[in-house]
Design goal:
The protein is an alpha/beta fold and about 230 residues long. It has a single domain, classed as Rossmann fold (3-Layer(aba) Sandwich), CATH 3.40.50.300. Helix content is about 40%, strand content about 25%. Strand 4 and strand 5 form a beta hairpin. Helix 3 packs across helix 4. It is globular. The N and C termini lie far apart (about 45 Å). The model has no long low-confidence stretch (mean pLDDT about 95). Adenosine-5'-triphosphate binds next to helix 1. This is ABC transporter related-protein. Keywords: ATP-binding, Nucleotide-binding, Transport.
């Protein structure tokens, strides 16, 4: 049984003009435990929307998202929040750290929504990402690369089976990006988490053995292309 299974997943949005646009139409997608997979997609192709559907931040219009045999898409919002806290770590392009809290507190707060707060493990993770001497710093007292490393530690805090990464190196310079990506991959491996990373960056995608093109799994992109060519003709 795969760790993640998506079936007949659809999500549409209403445009300001009142037209409904299908953004996600994924008939089938699976991810195995402990695997590392990248999804390639251009800007606006629905990468964040797809990750948010998997994480249960968004509810689909149709279809199923099943994580570790639990159907995320069938739950109400508090249920989805719980399932996410217990099973998923999420790394954002903009890190989403709480500025009023120290690095350690950011990781501990992430734990408080999950199976329980484990200060020793939080410290171990921060040391693992090279921030053993920065635990009491607040995010704005850190470099951008260091902030992303806090986000990596936080994503792994609840020992998730699945880590989702949304353009996690998009705000980093070349060297930091390469280092952060290596760290994300190694840390997921060490902690037994599968990794699903979305990006449009060729260099990032080049690090993965398995890369899926979003245009191949998301039929909504075919429709968008057809509509565009019809409008253009
Ligand atoms: N709340 C919303 N209401 C209406 N349209 C939305 C909403 N959220 C996203 N969209 C539209 O859905 C499409 C996909 O957005 P999404 O953020 O998933 O793309 P993306 O591939 O992550 O893009 P990027 O790489 O630029 O972040 C875009 O065309 C966007 O305008």
């Amino acid at each position: 049984m795969p760790l993640l299974e998506i079936e007949g997943l659809k999500k549409s949005y209403m445009s300001p003009e009142g037209n409904r646009h299908t953004i996600i139409d994924v008939p089938w997608f699976t991810l195995q435990e402990k695997s590392q997979v990248a999804l390639r997609g251009e800007s606006g192709s629905g990468k964040t929307t797809l990750l948010n559907l998997i994480a249960g931040i968004l509810k689909p219009d149709e279809g199923r998202v099943v994580i570790d045999a639990q159907e995320m898409s069938a739950l109400n919002e508090p249920g989805r929040d719980r399932l996410r806290a217990m099973n998923i770590g999420y790394i954002f392009q903009t890190f989403n750290l709480l500025q009023g809290y120290t690095c350690l507190e950011n990781v501990l707060l992430g734990m408080s929504f999950g199976p329980g707060v484990d200060r020793g493990f939080a410290e171990t993770l921060l040391k693992r990402v090279g921030l053993g001497d920065r635990m009491k710093h607040r995010p704005r007292q850190l470099s951008t690369g260091q902030q992303q490393r806090v986000a990596v530690a936080r994503a792994l805090a609840n020992k998730p089976k699945l880590v989702l990464a949304d353009e996690p190196t998009g705000n980093l310079d070349h060297n930091n990006a390469r280092e952060a990506l290596g760290l994300i991959r190694e840390a997921c491996k060490e902690n037994g988490a599968a990794l699903l990373l979305v990006s449009h960056d060729r260099e990032v995608l080049g690090q993965f053995r398995t890369v899926f093109d979003l245009s191949r799994i998301n039929k909504a992109l075919d429709e968008a292309a057809t509509n565009e060519s019809e409008e253009g003709s």
